[in-house]
Amino acid sequence: MTVLEAIRKRYSCRAYQERSIEQDKLDSILEAARLAPSARNMQDWRFVVVTDSQTKRRVAEVTNRPDVFAKAGVIIAACSNSDYVMRCGQAIGPIDVSIALEHICLRATELGLGTCWIGAFDTEKVRTILGIPADIAIIELMTIGYPADSRPEPKREPIKKIACYESWKF
Ligand SMILES: Cc1cc2nc3c(=O)[nH]c(=O)nc-3n(C[C@H](O)[C@H](O)[C@H](O)COP(=O)(O)O)c2cc1C
Hints:
Elements: H1 3-9, H2 23-34, E1 45-50, H3 53-61, H4 66-70, E2 74-80, H5 92-110, E3 114-118, H6 123-130, E4 137-145, H7 159-162
Antiparallel strand pairs: 1-2, 2-4, 3-4
Helix pairs in contact: 1-5, 2-5
The site of flavin mononucleotide has 12 residues, from strand 3.
């Protein structure tokens, strides 16, 4: 599968088979995250991979789709332990973690797995459930699992609406 094929195939999977993910697949997915670029190569991302059904259920309960996400093979809490701000004024934590998460999505897609980004969750409840320290930012959750749905046609703006050449022309 080419990178573009994986990008085209990825979608937000919101129905999962209740089936665990093989450890070699999880290892390969985490390897894709490990190889992601990060500002100053700080690699200040930390991933809590939840496979235990009861813990998954507890985490899913504090998201916007408890019944859907509880069935995924894993839920990953993607965290950052950096508060470094780049000269451009942007914090690296959410950027670096998001790049690694998209690597996760694409590798999972290549392995026939579905993923969903989850921003709608109660941070403090996730922190308590997973024992994540107060100084660690929980950037996003992500489900990974065997899909029980299929990809809908993506709704996207045309390139001319989102990109221009040489100077700002929007
Ligand atoms: C940062 C981020 C947060 C998101 N949070 C949620 C969420 O909490 N729940 C959910 O069902 N989908 C969530 N999504 C999925 C988006 O709704 C989805 O990516 C978008 O509608 C495009 O659809 P597609 O992923 O199927 O191409 C999130 C996506 C991103 C990138």
